[in-house]
Amino acid sequence: MARQRLLIDGYNLLWISGNVGRGRGTGWLERARRSLLHQLERSLPPDLVLDTLVVFDTSQPSPSPDPTSDPQPRVPVEFAMGYASADERLIEHIRRHPHPRKLVVVSSDHAIQNAARRRRATVVDSDVFWDRLLAGRIASLWGDVPSIQPQEPKEGMTEADTGHWIDLFLNED
Length: 173
Description:
Layout: E1 5-9, H1 10-17, H2 28-43, H3 46-49, E2 52-56, E3 77-79, H4 86-96, E4 103-106, H5 110-118, E5 122-124, H6 126-134, H7 159-170
Parallel strand pairs: 1-2, 1-4, 2-3, 4-5
Helix pairs in contact: 4-5
């Protein structure tokens, strides 16, 4: 079974989070991004941190981190270099994801949301995601994804059981 994946529209969430501040001084945007990424790293369940991808717009690579500053966040980041926007890159990730039903896409952008819905991924507006993240309720994003719980052994499979398993495996993306 493929792991669930969290795909985040970086600047969309950054503006919602309030990490942008007033945008003053050299390197303010890099500091704002790092602040957001550190918040994600602290707030996401540890097993989801590395199974997350935050995509930011950029026309240039991010400067190398200052080795004297705080450690680099472990949350994977991608800058959408070579794309007109991060939106295009996010939509490509959604299109290429091997198991989109296990994908949670965080963005308030309608084009991204529509692409995710077409693939049956879970869509969460950035403000809703941020509120749940701060409240420690991030697991509720996967509330409709059935968890696998051990069950009491049965004497044999019924016709309904067989149909359930056939549907489950045939509809797996």
